[in-house]
Amino acid sequence: GESVGLHLPTLSVQEGDNSIINCAYSNSASDYFIWYKQESGKGPQFIIDIRSNMDKRQGQRVTVLLNKTVKHLSLQIAATQPGDSAVYFCAENGSSNTGKLIFGQGTTLQVKP
Amino acid sequence: EAQVTQNPRYLITVTGKKLTVTCSQNMNHEYMSWYRQDPGLGLRQIYYSMNVEVTDKGDVPEGYKVSRKEKRNFPLILESPSPNQTSLYFCASSLTIGLNGYTFGSGTRLTVV
């Protein structure tokens, strides 16, 4: 069935290092993917998105890579900072008719000073 | 400031007592949706609305109702809350369906005793 999974529940990195958070999706029909950041006590915050006609998209300190062949999505954060500590979710548009987003379980990023 | 506003942020209620969680967006978005977030289950869609007077069920609609009488507001109604509706609820909106990042509210933590 449809699912979006993240490979690691927790990722711990040193401040200043680069972080890579991975996500596997199963619905090959999905054509839009989003990464969200959720800090404690807050709602998911949009980070970056990518459409299926692209394989890479860059933002400020973040890059999303999409590999449709193996149905894999990753989020790279450059020069990770303490403020990046949060739970990161990938999401795919499970249905273009309903607008439903299918979320993964989330990866907790811990940044060590 | 462009935002999705939910109220209340926290609510403790008793089984069977009707309640409404309000959601309002100031971005003139057509699409609005409600999600609940539970440990181990992630974010799941409850209801969505493509525009005024157009609403439909998501994946977990049982026990909930919604209405969309005006574009900016999308309240979530629990006619007879039960303890299994204890959860963290998020309202989200998007300019259109499918290919735009969704803006989430800050969440409503509901406890039903």
Helix/strand layout:
The complex is a heterodimer of chains A (113) and B (113).
Chain A lengths: L3 E3 L3 E5 L4 E7 L6 E7 L6 E7 L4 E3 L3 E6 L4 E6 L8 E8 L7 E3 L3 E6 L1
Chain B lengths: L3 E4 L2 E4 L5 E7 L5 E8 L3 E10 L2 E4 L7 E2 L9 E3 L8 E8 L8 E2 L3 E5 L1
Parallel strand pairs in B: 2-11
Antiparallel strand pairs in B: 1-3, 3-8, 4-5, 4-9, 5-6, 7-8, 9-10, 9-11
Order of helices and strands of chain A: EEEEEEEEEEE
Provide the β-strand percentage band of chain B.
over 45%
Helix content of chain A: under 10%
What class, by secondary structure content of chain B?
A: mainly beta
Question: Biggest sheet of chain B: strands, sense, closure?
Answer: 7 strands, mixed
C-alpha termini separation of chain B: 36 Å
Overall geometry of chain A = globular
Helix amount of chain B: under 10%
Number of helices of chain A: 0
Output the structural class of chain A. Answer: mainly beta
How many beta strands in the DSSP annotation of chain B? 11
Counting DSSP E segments of at least 2 residues, the number of strands of chain A comes to: 11
* Estimated radius of gyration of chain B: 13 Å
Number of helices of chain B: 0
Radius of gyration of chain A: 13 Å
End-to-end Cα distance of chain A, whole Å, is: 40 Å
